Structures are given as structure tokens and as C-alpha cells.
Amino acid sequence: MSLAVPAGVVRGAVADGLAGLLPILATALLATVAGRLARLGGTPKRWAPPLGAAVVVTTFLGPLGTSDFQEPYLALLAASALERGLVSRRLRGRRRLRALAASGLLVGAALLAKPSAIVLVPAVAAAALAARPGEVKGRGLAAAGLGLLPGLAVLLHLDVVRFGSVWEGGYSGQVSHPLTHRVAFVWTVLRLTVLPNRGLLWYAPLILLAIPGLLALGRTAARRPDRLAGLLAGGGFFAVNAFWWAWEGGMGWGPRLLAPAVACSAPLLLVRTAGARRAAFFLAAAGLLLNASGYLLDAGRVYRVVAAGPAAEPLGPVVPIHRTRAGTGELEPLQRVHYVPRQAALFVAPGIVWRLVAHGDGPAAGGLPPGSGPAPDAWVMRLLLRGERPRPGSYTGALLLQDAWVSRPVAPDRALTLARAAVAFGGPPVESRLFAGALLLGRGDASEALRLAREAALREPGNPQARALIDAATRSGGRSDQK
């Protein structure tokens, strides 16, 4: 991108566009893959594509596709790996081996999105072992394993580069933290299924169609391996989430960490009879209604509205780190959305939409503080609002600058690289230049610091920080071609 797109606002706009478009594209492709999985699981050809679309559009997967989380990519890669594995059951010879190698390759790519994708290995292995008569099962396992190796090797190499050992991952510090003890397993399961804060029955009602699929495991031998693989993959992702202390997945809409579990459960969603089609239509309509606000609002609005309200007691035990005063105080305000049923996003968000439409943006609607620009709502909602104009600079550049601020105390070289990238990607035009200039001045590069300080002063005349940096760089012997 650095060679093809000019630095500054243009490059930042392109990066922002790609960052917004790619998860939407991944989510749209997931609808197709989910339809193929449903077909492989036994749903008739006519109804499989609409069912696949419903799996995405009428559940939390749809709103999640407008976010910058990795789950849209993880769900697509996981479902695609499962689909290739199930397709291999219908093939023979080299075609079967190629399909299994592709499945392994996709599992490896999913590992790079999130290491929890390792739960796909049993599902792909089950598909490889359920080969047609006469096929050598060991060859299928070997093909899938060879496909997995590149992604696994890259993941282990990155662990060594970032953490110094293949046994150290990005989550080891969280696991050893004294306040990250997960609560009883049954409570986490309830919260991920039945309770409205993060429950699948609320954010993905269509998952109820998996009940007939599970019951059919013992009746229809021909499709049993396909549904079993879907159960292994979807159940594996669910179990990993249920045993993880951060079960709620942080701020966002719906049970984000369960996105690949829902996608991989598509072979279990049976729509073969008129009654099943009526049930699917009802569940899809209910899901679309419940998730509609997630398409319109930035989820941060819900958290700001709830956090600004009075304290509320959670239902059930709480992970210690989610309480104030080192795990001994009241529930953290931002955690109320996850633990207090009446303050679930599903219930709070529609009121926010109404306040935005009727009264405009503001604190009562979870608006950002003055000077921060508007919340990143969906474009439809932005057209309806007459609020604050967006702050200058790209979203990508702002993230790079934020990361530079965080890195400065522990990794000053990384902070400088990120600050320069923030300038190159059109970050906040004054702040990014002043921060990069200050870091450069600290390294003795007064001339470059002076150039950036003068650019900041041109964009905001009279800025005292820009003036101070210009004076400091000049005293340090800085020279600039800019007059």
C-alpha cells in the first residue's frame, strides 16, 4: 500500500475503506459457506442457501461483520475448513486428498486468526476418517496434516518472535493473572445460552434448529459423519469459550467468541419439512428483530449509557477482575451489560435508537464526549443524525497513534515506528505529528522533529505544543527546508 497509495489522508482513507469492507465481505462469503454446510448436513438444495443467509443475517454474526474484530475472518475460515472436509467425503482419489489438504490449510489460516481454531482438528479428522469405501483413511489424515503445517509453523514462529518461546502465547499473562479465575462452568454455560446478556437463544435463535439435527445423529447413518463433524467443530468452539475467563468477549454486540461455533453448526440445522421451514422462518424473524439495533448502533453507546446509570447487582457469580477494588468491590460499570439481565444490550439498544431519532445525539444516547467526534454508528444512523462532524484524520491512523502512546513507556522504538505510521496513514494531523516529533527529538533527530512540528503548526496555527516543539528542535540544531 505504501508504494501504490500516497501517504497521508488518501492512504488513511484507503486503509479505513479496506478495514470496513473486508469483514463485510468475509461475512457475506460466510453466508454462502453456511448454506453449503447446511446442504451437506441434509437440508434440501432449495432451502440450504436461504438458511445459510439466515445464519448470518438474522444472528449476531451480521452486526459482528461491521466490526474490526477478527471473528468474521475466523468464522469464515473455520466454516470453510469444515466444508472442504465434508466435501472430501463425497470424493475419491486425488480430488479427495486435495480437498482435505485445502481443509488443513484453512485450519492453519484460522489458527493465525485465533489459536482456539485448533478445535477444528478433530472435526476435520472425523471427516477424513469417514471416507467412501475403498479409500485409504490414513492418506486423508496425512493430506489434512500437511495442509495444516504451514499455518501452524507460522503461528509457532510468531510466538517465538513475540514471546520468546513456542510455549508462550499472547494469553499466558491473562491465564496467570490472580483476578482472572473463571466462575463455575454451569454459570458460564447459562450466560452463553439462556441469559439475555450473551445468550445464543437471544442473539442467534436459529440455533434451536440444531436440536432436530442432534436428535437425527442416531437415525440417519448417511449424514451422521457430517453432523458429527459440525458438532465437534461447533461444540469445540463453545467449550473453549465456556472455559475461558473472559467468556463475554469484551465490549461488542452478542457473544462474539461464539461466532465460529454458530457458523460451524450449520450442518446440524435441518430444514427438511414444512413444519421445520415454518419454525426456521419464525426463528429467523425473531433473530432479525432482536439484532436489528446491532446493525444501526455502535455497541459502545450501550456500554456508555449503562455505565452512566446507577449501580446494579449481577445475576450469579462474577469473574474477580470484573469487580472494582481488585475484585472485592461492586461490579465494574462497563460489565453490567454482561452480568445484569435487564441491562443487556438487546434491551437497552432499542431505547438508544429511539432517543437518537427523536432527540439527536448526546449523553442520554451514549454519545462520545465533546471534541471526540461522532460515534461510529452505521451509515444509515449517521444520515439521520445532525451531530458533531467527524474529527480530522483516519480511523487507522488514530489506532496507530493510540498504540504508539501505549508502547512509548516500554518500547520507544516501536512507539516511533507506530507514530510515523500514524502520520503516513493520515492519523490526527496535529497530534500524530507532535507525538512523532517529540520522539524524534528525544532520539536526537532535531531536523525531522522540526519539520513535523512546523507541519503541525500549519494545520493548527497558534498551537502551543507545536510552538514549544519548534523552539526545542531549533535549540537542538534542527534544520528544515520548510520556510
Give a written overview of the molecule.
The structure is a single chain. With 483 residues, this protein is mainly alpha-helical. The mean pLDDT is 89. Helix 4 (71-88) runs parallel beside helix 6. The protein is globular, with a radius of gyration of 25 Å. The chain has 3 domains: 23-170 and 178-286, no CATH class; 300-384, no CATH class; 395-475, Serine Threonine Protein Phosphatase 5, Tetratricopeptide repeat (Alpha Horseshoe), CATH 1.25.40.10. It has helices at 9-41, 48-57, 61-64, 71-88, 93-113, 120-129, 137-163, 172-176, 185-193, 200-203, 210-215, 224-243, 259-264, 274-296, 300-308, 324-327, 336-339, 345-359, 379-384, 395-407, 412-424, 431-442, 446-459, 464-475.
Describe the structure in brief.
The protein has helices spanning 9-41, 48-57, 61-64, 71-88, 93-113, 120-129, 137-163, 172-176, 185-193, 200-203, 210-215, 224-243, 259-264, 274-296, 300-308, 324-327, 336-339, 345-359, 379-384, 395-407, 412-424, 431-442, 446-459, 464-475. It is mainly α and 483 residues long.
Strand-helix topology:
Elements (H helix, E strand, L loop, with lengths): L8 H33 L6 H10 L3 H4 L6 H18 L4 H21 L6 H10 L7 H27 L8 H5 L8 H9 L6 H4 L6 H6 L8 H20 L15 H6 L9 H23 L3 H9 L15 H4 L8 H4 L5 H15 L19 H6 L10 H13 L4 H13 L6 H12 L3 H14 L4 H12 L8
- The rough form would be described as globular
Helix and strand composition category: mainly alpha
**Mean pLDDT, all residues:** 89
Helix content: 55-70%
Largest sheet: none
Bin the strand percentage. Answer: under 5%
Helix count, per DSSP?
24
Number of structural domains:
3
As a whole number of angstroms, the C-alpha radius of gyration is 25 Å
Low-confidence stretches: none
Secondary-structure element pattern, one letter each? HHHHHHHHHHHHHHHHHHHHHHHH
Amino- and carboxy-terminal Cα gap: 30 Å
